[in-house]
Amino acid sequence: MSRSRRYQAYIRERYRLLLWYMGGIWAITGVTILSPLLALPFFPSDAQYAWVFLLAGLPLIALGLMSRHFNKDIEKHSPNLQEGMVSIVLSWVVAILFGTVPFLLISNLTFSQAIFESTSGWTTTGLSVVDVTIAPPIILLYRSIIQLVGGAGFAIIVLSSITGPVGSGLSEAEGRDDKLAPNVRHSAGLVLRIYISYVIFGIVAYVLAGMPVFDAVNHAFAAVSTGGFSTRPESIGYYDSIAIEAVTLVLMILGTLNFLTAWLVVRGKWRDVLRNGEIRLLTVLLPIAATLIFASLFGQVYTSVGETAQVALFESLSALSTTGFSTTSYTAWMPSAIMVMIIIMTIGGGSGSTSGGIKQFRIYILLNALYWEIRKAFLPENAVNRASIWRGSERVPLTDKQVRRTALYLFFYVSLFFVLTLGILFHGNYTVAQALFESASTISTVGLSAGVTSPDAPASLLWMQSVAMLLGRLEFYALFIGIIKISSDLVTLAKPSGDR
Question: Would residue 237 be called left, alpha or beta, if left means φ above 0 and alpha means ψ between -120 and 50 degrees?
């Protein structure tokens, strides 16, 4: 057998392995799409829509089970990073495509709008073109459920339930390389249990704060996943309740925390929590952002100190955690306050959490790299200058590779940010501030809007935002490497077997 033929056979075997893994993801995605049907006893009038969810969910479950069955004899190995990225990219695309069906057939959205809404849900962005005032409860619940599952991440769900005890290709492909335990499956299981605990706490807390049960379930799902879909067009502002806002603040903090940090809290390792770089950065960024917004709005938009402080704190945390809930409109806000929001949306939440953005840990790395570089300039030439950072409970070396990868990610992010901003400006009579705000919200999967995203937005703009949301959720590398890997393998398989 020629070398090229052997390599082609190897690629086929590896893709059979990937189909086995993706089969599990597709089946779980199908179950996710079917899950709103559990609410039909409470909303019997929505039984008329059951066939829509069956039409979308059952074929996906069947496809997943068949993929598992026909590839069950393959030798099981954990996928490497490139293969994990292929699996995750294909899984996200399939979830988004099948996820459009309820929006197409129940909400009567166009295909472009349905793709946008599905992408926004699965990526936990929260930008929406659905009119929640007329949407049936089953659609509102469906949107919240796909945000909840999208926030947990397909890799986390699969690793915790159906994969072997080793390997990290799938979780790393989703940008989740922090481990709570040496065993990846055990680590993923701990993350899932923490996540579910957040959700239960959120539902109970919302109900006790006076929110209706249905709204409590939806908002808890959206808050913990830092998704931001709401059952009300006014979002959290609809309730005009300090208690509900307080519960939301807690849930947004939990959602933006790195799961490793949350695990340290559970274990009572407060010393390790307090010296964590992300926590320190969060405790600096949030007060600064809230103070700047307060100073910009007080006396200009709001006259009450208490109301201004309340709005400044809530909106700052909503933007920084990339949750996207809101208690107010931004139409009367001063440009300085809008700029602060753009900056903190761009920074985003904790790495290894459900939030988006550049991530606080990357900012922490770059700030430390800058500090060590400046310090190096004032040290003797032969002095030891070993840069280090805190990660979890350990102080680890800060390597040139980390700094380089972080800088490259920042370059990708900024490039996409300005491309999307320019694209928005070309699509209508939008101000530069609106375009910058919407771009930051889209790429960082925040969900706050300055008025650009709407049901009557051009289809081309919705597609641009859909791609940007997916890029932001998969953090560029997964999508780029996944597409390159698939393209390369297809070219190899297409070559005549005699080629070398």
Answer: alpha
Alpha carbon distance 361, 365 (integer Å): 6
pLDDT-derived band at 76 (thresholds 50, 70, 90) equals: low
The tokens of 258 are what? 């790195």
C-alpha span between 198 and 188 (Å, rounded): 15
- pLDDT tens across 119-167, in order? 999 999 999 999 999 999 999 999 999 999 988 775 565 554 444 433 4
CB 453 within 8 A of CB 439: no
pTM: 0.90
Residue entry with tokens 């900024």 = 414
DSSP 445-497: T----SS---TTS-HHHHHHHHHHHHHHHHTTHHHHHHHHHHHHHHHHHHS-T
List all residues 6 or more positions away from 312 whose beta carbon is below 8 Å from its beta carbon: 290, 291, 293, 294, 297
Backbone angles phi, psi at 166, to 5 degrees: -135, 170
List CB contacts of 351: < 8 A, sequence separation 6 or more: 175, 178, 258, 278, 359, 360, 361, 362
- Residue linked to tokens 């492909």: 173
Q: What is the CA radius of gyration of the chain?
A: 23
Query: Integer distance in angstroms from the first to the last C-alpha of the chain?
Result: 12
Contact 398, 368 (CB under 8 A): yes
**Residue 89: band (very low, low, confident or very high) from pLDDT cuts 50, 70, 90:** confident
Read off the tokens for 214: 């249905």
Residue 428 phi, psi (nearest 5): 175, -170
